[in-house]
């Protein structure tokens, strides 16, 4: 039995835990709706293209972003959007050296290079949650905590309205209030220290009435508590179209196309032919959102560079829902939405870089994601999958380990699979074009298929 299936055995006690089981699945559905991943960087692509540095010496070393100038007074690196409001940012942080007047920190709501919130690891086994305003520091809270060079710590900051909370390794260090910054990017920082940073993730933590992304229709659960040993699976929760848009050929998209939840149809023959035209072709940096794609959908969406696909729903995938073709590195995002009836795969990754999939619902598919194993060019490809619901799908991700592909998973809910047959991560040996890649295994490891089957996968 595959390692990805044999360790995760969640059993709901009969009757007594029925309501608890229902509540757990409902909570998961709400998480998918309101905790979409806004940004993620594992640095597996070997670059910091999505970051903007200010001071210090930055590079990617051993799969992590490193600031190596221990004598730098103020080294910062920023990422994300200046318009982000309420969110949670987490990162793994390892101080390499730490002078007596030094610090290593994670930043949230960076309004400028000198105004932000900071969770700082300090010498003397201290951690502080700080509000930094034009370089002036106000301590919102602190705690004694072992801080050792050469050790990894998971830092997290949640900003919601005027409330700021800092955590280390999941434990709350401090919570305070401040009006220093209402919006801003994320960042990392060192002062008279060197450090490594990895697994940076930003999730939407918007409060009532405020959101960083549009509300996504998500799977819902029955309001009848289960009376058996397994909770009921969510239904599709498919959105209702607001109108129809006729498609006679490929629609080019540069900038942003907001479909307003119209149903776009139709193109192609609904089959598996690789020669079908896409319904949408996204230029580098383009965004498509709030679209229902009817059947037949041709070859779905083509992303020519990096792109964002937000709240897009495929009624019947046909060939592929989307193909990522960009070869310039960087990260493309699939945020929310859902897809049904993909006899082969939903997302095909032919270029390089990273595809980040979050808040997605997939039903009746062969694979959710496949890194091309026999394209003309052989690249290292990476995928990050979080906060998704999977139903009647054989494989979540297939990658090529001989090319250094990585797949990271967190908060994956597999419904209606009491036998745990769904494969989380399939491994292949990539081959030149014209040959067929060979399957070489599946399941978690420390190099390519990155997840904990006991904590990252929920069998509901």
Automatic annotation (TrEMBL):
Keyword annotations from UniProtKB, A to Z: Calcium, Lyase, Secreted, Signal
Enzymatic reactions: Eliminative cleavage of (1->4)-alpha-D-galacturonan to give oligosaccharides with 4-deoxy-alpha-D-galact-4-enuronosyl groups at their non-reducing ends
Signal found in the keyword field: yes
Stored InterPro entries: AL/BT2_dom, ConA-like_dom_sf, Pectate_lyase_PlyH/PlyE-like, Pectin_lyas_fold, Pectin_lyase_fold/virulence
A Pfam family the protein falls into: Pectate_lyase
Main localization category: secreted
Signal sequence extent: 1-35
Sequence segments annotated as region (Disordered): 203-254
Cofactor(s) essential for the protein: Ca(2+)
Source taxon at top rank: Bacteria
Composition bias, Low complexity: 207-227
Record bears the keyword Calcium: yes
Protein name listed in UniProt: pectate lyase
Organism from which the protein derives: Dactylosporangium maewongense
């Amino acid at each position: 039995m595959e390692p990805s299936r044999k360790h995760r055995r969640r059993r709901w006690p009969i009757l007594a835990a029925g309501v608890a089981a229902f509540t757990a699945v409902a909570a998961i559905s709400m998480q998918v709706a309101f905790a979409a991943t806004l940004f993620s960087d594992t640095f597996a692509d070997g670059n910091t293209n999505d970051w903007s540095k200010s001071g210090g010496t930055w590079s990617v070393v051993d799969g992590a972003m490193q600031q190596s100038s221990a004598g730098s007074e103020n080294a910062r690196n920023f990422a994300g959007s200046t318009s982000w409001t309420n969110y949670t940012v987490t990162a793994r942080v390892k101080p390499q050296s730490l002078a007596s007047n030094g610090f290593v920190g994670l930043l949230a709501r960076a309004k400028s290079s000198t105004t932000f919130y900071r969770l700082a690891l300090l010498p003397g086994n201290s951690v502080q949650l700080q509000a930094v305003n034009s370089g002036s520091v106000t301590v919102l809270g602190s705690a004694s905590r072992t801080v050792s060079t050469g050790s990894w710590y998971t830092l997290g900051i949640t900003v919601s309205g005027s409330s700021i909370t800092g955590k280390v390794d999941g434990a709350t260090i401090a919570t305070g209030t401040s009006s220093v910054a209402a919006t801003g990017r994320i960042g990392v920082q060192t002062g008279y220290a060197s450090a490594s940073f990895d697994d940076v993730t930003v999730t939407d933590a918007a409060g009532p009435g405020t959101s960083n992304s549009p509300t996504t229709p998500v799977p819902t659960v029955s309001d009848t508590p289960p009376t058996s040993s397994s909770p009921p699976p969510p239904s599709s929760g498919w959105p209702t179209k607001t109108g129809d848009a006729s498609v006679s050929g490929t629609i080019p998209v540069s900038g942003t196309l907001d479909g307003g939840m119209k149903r776009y149809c139709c193109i192609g023959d609904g089959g598996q032919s690789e020669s079908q035209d896409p319904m949408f072709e996204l230029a580098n940096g383009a965004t498509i959102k709030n679209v229902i794609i009817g059947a037949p959908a041709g070859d779905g969406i083509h992303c020519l560079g990096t792109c964002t696909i937000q709240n897009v729903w495929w009624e019947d995938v046909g060939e592929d829902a989307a193909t990522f073709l960009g070869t310039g590195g960087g990260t493309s995002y699939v945020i929310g939405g859902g897809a049904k009836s993909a006899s082969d795969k939903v997302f095909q990754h032919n270029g390089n870089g990273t595809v980040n999939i979050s808040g997605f619902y997939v039903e009746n598919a062969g694979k959710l994601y496949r890194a091309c194993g026999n394209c003309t060019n052989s690249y290292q490809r990476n995928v990050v999958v979080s906060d998704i619901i999977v139903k009647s799908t054989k494989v979540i991700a297939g990658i090529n380990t001989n090319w250094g592909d990585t797949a990271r998973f967190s908060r994956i809910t597999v419904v209606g699979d009491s036998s745990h047959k769904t494969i989380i991560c399939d491994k292949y040996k990539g081959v030149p074009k014209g040959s067929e890649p060979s399957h070489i295994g599946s399941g978690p490891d420390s190099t390519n298929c990155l997840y904990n089957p006991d904590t990252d996968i929920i069998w509901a």
